[in-house]
């Protein structure tokens, strides 16, 4: 048999994968060992004539070794660096290449050893190419294919988009794309990706924002009714302000939406025109002139600010009820203000409890001792002690209520521990109990605001009027000086919120077929007495009728065209006039004549609705869903209900409801361009999955009507 050529024998070696078919290392299924585990065929006789076609040796080891013939049938491999020779073939036996690779990889070659430090430095460089030695510098690794993940080709544009989305979603600084650590990570992950600069990623973020804005714009343009705006003012270290403008509305499927629309930098946030300028900019940006029903702001406004806002909107927006529904206060801000009033009045006893909790929680041995006392005396409480975060008032309330349940344990700890000084006395605990009882009502209301966007006005009304009544009674309590002193300022501040919002809250309650005007009459009598309540009830009743007639006079459709109506699915459809007459002529005058001559004889939708019996009060009742089902029976009143029930009572998201400090834009974002700040914050809101309307909040009807 004719022996093979030496070069052909070399080609029988296992070829590294980098030199054959390229395979994505993280998308492998087959397990391939890079070390050969076989012997090659015997070398040929050196006297034979080699074939004319010579195949190139493919193993990378031959870049470091040469083959030398030392005798008949005996060849050795010689290291090009240190000139050492190693067995390669003797007769029919071939030693293979594994020991040659180890000579280079393990650093036994003196030349390689001397250059090890230099090679290591090159390997750590973020832009250095992998060394050819690195493929066998460690224990041979296995490569895997994953059957469930398809092969994905490298796309530099997609990588740039994902970097911008990552920065948006996780609030990373834009300059991270220039940080050495991030550069090294990306280069090692994908060497073919050309890393972007700060200016490039800034442009990518704005591009992402504009793409997402087009989707939101379609949703806003498709809303069938009016929109409500909320304004939340943030401060900054640069003395400028940022107004967060959000929109809340009910779509054609009768689902509630809340979207952050703009983040507008205000150079003079304390001016009387800051909020009116923000509203004007939002309406122009989104094309919503004439579609606004209310504005809710997170802080009290001066009379000049309110006048400027209403004057602006009287030009761009029809003023429903002469603007009485236009400006409202934020319930979360009002609750935070009055809670701080109560905590400030009781700061002495609050500090005693806080110090006691800190004394126990900052020592593991004391906490164990505290729990032992609790078990020994069988104190029936499942609550755990936690030190409060004074920037969130719910944590202070929970700390006080937990400590109150464990007051016996604190008392016993004071008797057995001489280092525990000045524990709360019985009088202190009595005052803490009074404070917790007052705060619990406010805590329950605030929890309603933490759920996803939903029709909260009715649930809030029923809780708010009880707080208004209880605070008024507590402030006039002659038997408990601590209670009356604490609640006096709380009542004064809460009364301001009640007076600014009770009108719109009352109108929203009338839109609930379980309550209608009956609940308004009941609550107003409770708060004001029968004589004073009569005038307030009359204002609400007249306001509802006036608002209904405005909806009759100025119908609101998503197409802005009176020739459009809604089909049984709530979708806008064009109404064709008979005999080819358009909606602005022909029989339209006759329709107006019929309305004028029969208006005194027939009942309006509103009168018919108010005269019908109340529905049974069930806790899982969906008010908006009821109007959706009855929109054919009440075509105009249902549109009015849809807009009124979408009025928000809070300007902040659920995770900010309990905050006691005004939000401040960090110094890094304040240094960015205002367009970039808006793109970062708005795009993050839009990229997150939207939480549509959930179950209606449970309405507690403790007092029968």
Global mean pLDDT? 80
Q: What is the straight-line distance between the termini?
A: 110 Å
Proportion of residues in helical segments: 40-55%
Task: Please indicate the percent range of residues in DSSP E strands (runs of 2 or more).
Answer: 5-15%
**Shape designation:** extended
Low-confidence stretches: 1-50, 125-141, 557-585, 694-705
The biggest beta sheet reads: 6 strands, mixed
Coarse structural class: alpha/beta
Number of helices: 24
The total strand number stands at 12
Radius of gyration: 38 Å
GO cellular component, one term: nucleus
GO molecular function, one term: protein dimerization activity
Keywords: DNA-binding, Metal-binding, Nucleus, Transcription, Transcription regulation, Zinc, Zinc-finger
Subunit structure: Homodimer.
Write up this protein.
α15 (426-449) packs parallel to α17 and α17 crosses α18 (516-553). The protein is 47% helix and 10% strand. The protein has 24 helices and 12 strands. Mean pLDDT is 80; it is low at 1-50, 125-141, 557-585 and 694-705. Among the domains are: 62-108, no CATH class; 206-318 and 663-687, no CATH class; 331-450, no CATH class; 456-555 and 620-650, no CATH class. It is extended. Strands 5, 6, 7, 8, 9 and 12 form a 6-stranded mixed β-sheet that branches. A hairpin with a 2-residue loop joins β1 (65-71) and β2. It is an alpha/beta fold and 705 residues long.
């Amino acid at each position: 048999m004719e022996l093979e050529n030496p070069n052909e024998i070399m080609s029988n070696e296992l070829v590294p994968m980098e030199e054959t078919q390229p395979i994505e290392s993280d998308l492998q299924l087959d397990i391939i060992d890079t070390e050969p585990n076989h012997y090659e065929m015997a070398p040929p006789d050196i006297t034979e004539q080699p074939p004319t076609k010579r195949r190139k040796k493919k193993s990378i080891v031959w870049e470091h070794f040469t083959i030398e013939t030392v005798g008949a049938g005996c060849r050795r491999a010689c290291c090009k660096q240190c000139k050492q020779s190693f067995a390669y073939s003797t007769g029919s036996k071939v030693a293979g290449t594994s020991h040659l690779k180890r000579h280079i990889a393990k650093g036994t070659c003196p030349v390689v050893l001397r250059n090890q430090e230099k090679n290591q430095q090159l390997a750590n460089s973020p832009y250095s190419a992998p060394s050819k030695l690195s493929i066998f510098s460690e224990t041979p690794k296995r490569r895997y294919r994953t059957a469930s993940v398809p092969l994905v080709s490298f796309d530099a544009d997609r990588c740039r988009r994902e970097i911008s989305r990552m920065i948006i979603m996780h609030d990373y600084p834009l300059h991270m794309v220039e940080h050495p650590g991030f550069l090294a990570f990306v280069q090692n992950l994908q060497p073919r990706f050309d890393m972007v600069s700060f200016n490039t990623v800034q442009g990518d973020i704005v591009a992402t924002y504009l793409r997402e804005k087009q989707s939101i714009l379609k949703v806003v343009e498709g809303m069938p009714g009016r929109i409500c705006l909320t304004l939340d003012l943030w401060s900054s270290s640069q003395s400028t302000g940022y107004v967060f403008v959000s929109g809340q509305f009910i779509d054609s499927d009768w689902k509630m939406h809340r979207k952050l629309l703009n983040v507008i930098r205000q150079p003079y946030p304390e001016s009387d025109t800051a909020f009116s300028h923000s509203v004007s900019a939002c309406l122009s940006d989104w094309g919503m002139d004439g579609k606004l029903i209310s504005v809710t702001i997170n802080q009290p406004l001066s009379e000049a600010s309110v006048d400027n806002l209403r004057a602006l909107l009287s030009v761009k927006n029809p003023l429903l009820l002469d603007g009485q529904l236009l400006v409202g206060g934020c319930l979360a801000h009002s609750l935070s203000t009055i809670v701080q009033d109560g905590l400030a009045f009781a700061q002495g006893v609050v500090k005693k409890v806080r110090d006691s909790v800190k004394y126990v929680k900052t020592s593991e041995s004391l906490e164990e001792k505290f729990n032992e006392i609790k078990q020994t005396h069988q104190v029936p409480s499942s609550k755990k002690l936690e030190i409060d975060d004074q920037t969130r008032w719910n944590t202070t309330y929970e700390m006080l209520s937990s400590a109150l349940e464990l007051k016996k344990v604190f008392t016993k700890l004071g008797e057995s521990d001489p280092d525990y000084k000045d524990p709360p006395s019985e009088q202190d605990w009595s005052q803490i109990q009074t404070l917790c009882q007052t705060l619990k009502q406010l805590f329950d209301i605030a929890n309603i605001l933490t759920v996803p966007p939903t029709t909260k006005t009715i649930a809030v009304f029923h809780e708010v009027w009880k707080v208004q009544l209880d605070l008024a009674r507590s402030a006039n309590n002659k038997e408990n000086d601590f209670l009356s002193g604490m609640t006096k300022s709380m009542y004064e501040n809460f009364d301001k919120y009640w007076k600014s919002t009770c009108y719109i809250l009352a109108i929203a309650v009338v839109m609930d077929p379980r309550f209608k005007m009956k609940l308004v009459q009941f609550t107003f009598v409770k708060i004001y007495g029968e004589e004073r309540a009569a005038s307030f009830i009359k204002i609400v009743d007249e306001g509802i009728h006036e608002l209904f007639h405005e909806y009759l006079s100025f119908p609101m459709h998503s197409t802005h065209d009176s020739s459009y109506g809604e089909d049984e699915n709530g979708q806008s459809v064009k109404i064709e006039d008979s005999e080819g007459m358009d909606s602005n002529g022909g029989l339209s005058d006759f329709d107006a004549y019929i309305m004028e001559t029969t208006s005194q004889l027939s009942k309006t939708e509103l009168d018919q609705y108010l005269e019908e019996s109340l529905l049974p009060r069930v806790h899982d009742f969906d008010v908006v869903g009821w109007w959706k089902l009855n929109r054919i029976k009440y075509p105009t009143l249902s549109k009015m209900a849809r807009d009124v029930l979408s009025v928000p009572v809070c300007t902040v998201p659920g995770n900010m409801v309990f905050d006691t400090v005004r939000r401040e834009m960090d110094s890094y974002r304040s240094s960015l361009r205002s367009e970039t700040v808006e793109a970062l914050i708005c795009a993050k809101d839009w990229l997150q999955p939207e939480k549509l309307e959930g179950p209606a909040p449970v309405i507690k009807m403790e007092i029968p009507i």
